[in-house]
Design a protein that fits this description.
Layout (H helix, E strand, L loop, with lengths): L8 H32 L7 E3 L19 E5 L5 H10 L3 E2 L13 E2 L18 E5 L5 H4 L14 E5 L2 E5 L2 H17 L5 H13 L4 H10 L2 H18 L5 H8 L3 H10 L2 H4 L8 H8 L3 H12 L20 H41 L3 H30 L4 H29 L1 H21 L3 H15 L1 H13 L5 H32 L6 H18 L1 H4 L19 H18 L5 H7 L5 H29 L1 H21 L3 H17 L1 H10 L6 H30 L1 H22 L12
Parallel strand pairs: 2-5
Antiparallel strand pairs: 1-2, 3-4, 6-7
Helix pairs in contact: 4-5, 4-7, 5-7, 9-11, 14-19, 14-20, 15-16, 15-17, 15-18, 15-28, 16-17, 16-18, 16-20, 19-20, 19-24, 22-28, 22-29, 24-25, 24-26, 25-26, 25-27, 25-29, 28-29
Length: about 750
């Protein structure tokens, strides 16, 4: 030990004691091996030793320096059960009947009464037995190293300290040590000594060219690539010398694997202090099947089994006194608590590392991610507010006619706010306009939750519509500015899918918030629990100001700052969109009231229905490109609008919660399935400099149609009920489908005019 003389006396004493204890354990390990071999060999059970003392001399300078707690033996799968019976005859017992799928049977121990005392080098620690029947678990890892079947054929006899055993060929021994490390790495179980032993081997064999040539010849390129991952990790951690052959293998690693090393090679060390699951993205890069990738992701984020809690496994049932049992329960509870805490604390890290990983791979900038988080907070807060606000008004005693006036006033405010937002972004810039919009939206929402005077509620709704209009106007241009041409499709896709996911969370949270607040005694009445829930939504909107304040937007081009005269094709599109907005605007503002008044669902179950409809939207949006590719834009949009009309008819006839939920999910799916096609159709109908203008006109028409529909539907609902209004909305959606099909058949982009 080169640094021994520089260590404090108590440290040197501790090291000397650990070495002495480990030397005694080495003698116990040899005795255990001799005993097991004397039972297996006469029975004709051929086996080889894995890891442990076979790592001398290539991975460790002395077997007494390597702690070994178990004896790992590999046997052909057809005889491993016989070996299990032979071990039972020696007094070994499995610690459990079943274990999580790995490469060996459940660990076998003798019930000697020994208990863990917190000392890894305890000389009295018994040696357990693990009977391996394979070298890799393809079902769990979802990929298979090539050439593992040849390892058994190349096994060799060896001798150490008067014990004779069979082990892998040196090249295969290195390969298995690397695979063992890789498996622990992918399962978040790396121990530093795993990496250190590999670094020791690499360092001391760096000049052994004959070994590395043989290693390269024996192993398939895919097998060498998996080992090179571990070699690279050893270099990152210990800066060891490596052979030129190893250097070449590391250089030839695929770009994703090299990128993971550059970004996350230290994560297996830091996870003990700051929990993370960064190894997920390494595993993701090693799997070809997309389905298998999602399976691994689900297993790591949502495990379907409890971890094995091993405690007092050497104590027999007869020795389990009440004190031993109580201590065991406390230790197991502590273990489960620590694991649960680890996984919960790791979730924010997983979200951030996923954004870094996929964002860097697609060229998304830090500015984009700040905007992404701002959108997340804003959308979540507004989902909570919009979901609960009409239900809050019902609690105050208002009816659908007044709710329709409030929704219509807000849509009217959106119309005026759309024009103001365009001029504000020209005058003050996009960031300042959005900051003012978010702050104003949160403040006005809080006032809408505080005041109960009807004229004030209508006026505040109109002003809130003006304040919130900047967000939809700025949404697409902002993402376009914060992404490159290459990363833009992924940026839009990620933002849209995140918006829907946030809608799912917002629906679930909004459904539970009033109940949580009531149970916590923060509110004395049901109305107050709704009001405080609305205030909570406002707080989330304000949180969006933090990331948004750091976003730097570019300057808009002069051609993008003015409204262009719409072409005849755009006018026909706006006519069809006006009809579509009238049809959907009659139902969208009243979905929560419909379930509360007609279906009689409590608010929490309404949240579940809304979340389920958002999940259905995800599937619909993913399928929509296939529909448009098969039937074309106008036919696809028209068909989806007809499906929306039929879903509205189904809602009108719904007689219970289940059919109501199914009908609403179908309505939301078909409605939003057409939206990507509508935007694509509009953008293809105009020149690039006119797209912002066309988008603004589209929102103006949509807001106007929704305002008229909301006000009119509210009055009709109060006088005639839901079924007639839904039938009328379905008829209008059919008219919109016909208009899209007739007015916009086979649209082609206009020929750009000369400047």
């Amino acid at each position: 030990m080169t640094c021994r003389e520089h260590l404090p006396e108590w440290v040197r004493s501790r090291i000397d004691g650990n070495l002495a204890s480990n030397a005694a354990r080495w003698e116990r390990t040899k005795a255990t091996y001799r005993e097991v071999a004397s039972a297996f060999e006469p029975a004709g059970l051929e086996f080889l030793v894995l890891k442990g003392f076979t790592h001398y001399p290539r991975f460790v300078s002395d077997p007494r320096y390597r702690p070994q707690g178990d004896l790992d033996l590999l046997l052909p799968q057809e005889i491993v059960s016989q070996a299990f019976d032979a071990a039972i005859g020696l007094g070994y017992q499995p610690i459990a009947e079943h274990s999580y799928p790995i490469d060996h049977l459940p660990m076998m121990v003798r019930r000697t009464g020994w208990q863990w005392r917190g000392d890894f080098f305890d000389a009295e620690s018994p040696v357990s037995l693990e009977l391996h029947f394979r070298l890799w678990d393809e079902l769990t890892e979802r990929f298979e190293p090539v050439g593992l079947d040849q390892f058994w054929l190349r096994r060799q006899p060896r001798e150490l300290d008067d014990i004779h055993f069979t082990a892998f060929h040196p090249a295969d021994e290195l390969a298995y040590a690397s695979l063992h490390l890789l498996r622990h790495l992918l399962r978040d179980g790396v121990r530093p000594f795993h990496v250190y032993e590999l670094a020791w081997h690499l360092h001391h064999s760096a000049d052994d060219l004959s070994f590395w040539c043989e290693w390269s010849q024996l192993h398939h390129p895919s097998m060498r690539r998996l080992q090179a991952i571990c070699f690279s990790l050893a270099q990152h951690w210990f800066d060891c010398r490596v052979s030129t052959v190893v250097q070449e293998e590391i250089r030839n690693l695929p770009s994703d694997l090299s990128r993971w090393m550059d970004m996350y090679s230290a994560s297996p060390l830091t996870t003990r202090f700051r929990p993370n699951k960064d190894e997920l993205w390494l595993h993701w890069s090693l799997i070809d099947s997309r389905r298998a990738k999602w399976t691994v992701l689900r297993r790591r984020l949502l495990p379907d089994h409890l971890p094995n809690a091993l405690d007092a496994v050497h104590v027999s049932k007869q020795q389990h006194t009440w004190s031993v049992q109580l201590a065991r329960y406390f230790r197991i509870a502590g273990y489960f608590g620590s694991r649960a805490s680890h996984h919960v604390r790791a979730l924010p890290s997983v979200a951030w590392s996923a954004m870094r990983w996929f964002g860097q791979g697609t060229g998304l900038s830090g500015e984009y991610w700040r905007f992404f988080f701002a959108e997340a907070f804003f959308d979540f807060g507004m989902f909570v507010f919009v979901f609960l606000y009409n239900l809050y008004l019902l609690q105050l005693g208002f009816h659908e006619d007044f709710l329709g006036l409030v929704a219509g006033a807000m849509m009217a405010g959106n119309i005026a706010g759309t024009m103001l937002a365009v001029f504000a972004m020209q005058r003050f810039g996009m960031r300042r306009t959005l900051l003012a919009s978010f702050a104003g939206t949160a403040a006005l929402a809080a006032l809408r939750a505080y005041f109960t005077f009807p004229p004030a509620l209508i006026a505040l709704a109109a002003i809130a519509g003006i304040a919130s209009a900047a967000w939809p106007v700025a949404y697409a241009p902002a993402i376009a500015q914060l992404t490159t041409e290459k990363s833009r499709p992924f940026g839009f896709s990620l933002t849209c899918s995140a918006g829907i996911s946030i809608g799912i969370l917002g629906g679930l949270a909004a459904g539970r918030l009033p109940g949580w607040i009531a149970r916590s005694h923060l509110a004395s009445t049901g109305i107050e629990s709704y009001r405080f829930s609305l205030f909570a939504g406002c707080a989330f909107v304000l949180l969006a100001l933090i990331p948004l304040s750091g976003v730097k937007f570019g300057t808009a081009q002069p051609s993008e700052r003015k409204l262009h005269r719409p072409s005849p094709l755009v006018l026909r599109f706006l006519i069809a969109m006006a009809a579509w907005s009238l049809g959907t605007g009659a139902m969208n503002p009243f979905f929560n009231v419909f379930f509360a008044q007609r279906v009689h669902l409590p608010v929490q179950q309404i949240g579940y229905v809304y979340a389920a409809s958002q999940v259905a939207q995800v599937g619909a949006i993913l399928v929509s490109p296939l529909v448009f590719r098969k039937f074309g834009l106008t036919r696809g949009i028209s068909g989806m609008q007809l499906a929306t009309a039929f879903a509205l008819l189904g809602l009108a006839a719904a007689g219970g919660p289940i059919w109501g939920a199914v009908g609403y999910s179908a309505y939301m799916m078909s409605q939003y399935m057409s939206e990507p096609g509508q935007f694509t159709l509009l953008m293809e109908a105009v020149r690039a400099p006119e797209r912002n203008s066309a988008s603004a006109l589209n929102f103006l028409v949509s807001f106007a149609g929704q305002a008229i529909a909301a006000a009119g539907a509210g009055w009709l609902l109060a006088h005639f009920g839901y079924p007639p209004v839904m039938v009328l909305a379905a008829v209008i959606c059919v008219i919109a489908a016909i208009l899209f099909r007739v007015l916009l058949a086979d649209p082609k982009p206009e020929t750009p005019s000369q400047p």
